[in-house]
Amino acid sequence: MEKTPFKVLVINHSTIIRQAIITIFNSSDTLEVIGDTEDGYKALVKIPKWQPDVITLDINTPYKESLSALKRIMIFHPTPIIILNHRLETTPAIFDALSYGAIDFLTLSLGLINKTLDADDLKKQQEQLIKKVFLAAMVNNNAFQYIPLKANKKNNSHQKQEGCKNLVVLGVGEGGYGTLLKIIPKLSVNYSTAYIIVSYDADDYLHSFIRYLNHFSAVKVQTTLNNVLLEAGGCYISTGDEYVTIHGKKGDLLTYVSPAPFSSRRGSIDMLMFSASEALENPLGVILSGEGNDGAEGLEEIVRSGGGAIIQTPSNCLYDSMALSALNLCEEKVVVADREIATEINNFLIYSVN
User: Which residues contact residue 55 at a Cβ distance below 8 angstroms, ignoring those fewer than 6 apart?
Assistant: First the structure.
């Protein structure tokens, strides 16, 4: 383990909220606040002196100023950054911040600040905040970088609505939004392949995230619905609270979506990968950041059936247990950082049998 406590820089426009966050961090044995300021531009001057291991950044200030400061931090002083938020209406700004290089985000209840939450909820959110910032401090520098996104105007005249003949199945948990932003916008439209994703990460934001991803992606990003033909060039996203399975044959693959009876046991990724390996000869499975071991057995089954496997480098994950579980179980795999995964997927599809 890295030497602790990790040094934290707190950036928040509100003095009251800033002091509450500092108190929470300093109550931990693993974190120590070495500086605080009300805006990112002032922090830029002090970062070389303070040399923080991790930064928390308030996104509820005028968000354009926060994003501009975040961009400059990533360019001149690359540091793991966790976005802290307390208003749902700032969702697009959160996704912008992730695309600018922030590792993850956390929506704070105002009850955490004024301590109006009951004791159990207060303790739970304090622990969640400490854990997320601690894990961010341990991530290697391949996990955070400024990656500008450009709006993608879909070329519908060439994207035929035909059933797919191959599948790329991605499983992702906590820390997944930032990871997917480095992957999905870089995917090529393959006119025989569909992409299907199970995500456990903060599903309150999922529908907004799907719209955001679709705006910047060549593939058509949408929610996975029941009994729908998987179209070539489409990208389908579901939550871990659903079981999604694939039925049919090449060119006529349909989804079956049902509530996961035991969602807390986390088997949705395995379930999807098992069904993909039964329906197709050479699907591609991808395991990304997340907690637990869901997806490890499914990925192994995809490889056993003749498909391919890609695993995000564990040290590049905010939460590494899903990747480590897949790494230990699956012998034949490609292991790369998240920013290289889209290239690996595109290359696999070039050489796979359609």
Answer: 8, 9, 10, 11, 43, 73, 79, 80, 81, 82
Q: What is the pLDDT of residue 140?
A: 76
Q: Residue 320: its pLDDT value, please?
A: 95
The pLDDT value given to residue 324? 97
Length of the chain: 354
| DSSP for 148-166, written as a single string | --------TTT----B-SE
Q: How far apart are CA 102 and CA 146, in angstroms?
A: 8
Q: CB of 104 within 8 A of CB of 137?
A: no
Q: Give residue 264's identity as a one-letter amino acid code.
A: S
**Which portions of the chain are predicted below pLDDT 70?**
1-3, 61, 87-90, 141-143, 155-160, 263, 353-354
CA 86 to chain centre: 19
How far is Cα 346 from Cα 151, in angstroms, rounded to an integer? Answer: 20
DSSP states of 168-200: EEEEE-TTHHHHHHHHGGG----TTEEEEEEE-
Report the DSSP beta bridge partners of residue 235. 195, 221
**CA neighbor of 98 nearest in space, from 142, 149, 60:** 149
Question: Could you tell me the domains of the chain?
Answer: 6-143 (3.40.50.2300), 166-351 (3.40.50.180)
Of 206, 181, 176, nearest to 99 by C-alpha is: 181
pTM of the model: 0.91
